[in-house]
Amino acid sequence: MPVPSADFKKALARLPDKEKEALLLRAVRRDAELYDTFSYELLPDVTLESVYDASADRIHELFNVAVSGRLLNRSLVKALRAALQEATRARRVTKSKQLEIDLSLYTLRLIFEHYTGQFDSVYQGFYVGTARLATRLTQLIPKNLHEDLWLEYKPELDDFLTQLHGRSKSRELKFELPRALVLAE
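RE: above sequence
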């Protein structure tokens, strides 16, 4: 992303309000994420909860569409990738790392409620992607959240990790899958 120069900032400050407004409206029409960011920052009815709900609905819809695909495992891998992009996008819009973690956990909940049968498929992509997400969460939670919140996530994440370790494919992973969320003593 380019950094605005001092000359650019001065020229922007000299613009009349009407032209600034026109430039801003043109920019948000071109970039949906910029529009969502400004909506979150400027509109009182767009809250962290509403962004979470909208993103969770999009993630849920991604997995519903994936089920209608011809190759279920491949469709689920694409849905998982898109769900992670949605969680990252929500974090960029709100600047809330906890929101990204909550949406990632929501994705894991969806997977473990509906799609664990695909872990036994000949194709490993979906299992590996899910294991990577669980591993990533074990790193994100201690890094980005306060210690008091770790206990809130530990039981659910530990359950997901135990279920992943219960599969024979866990021994074939090319990375180490943690057995539990490790809390600092």
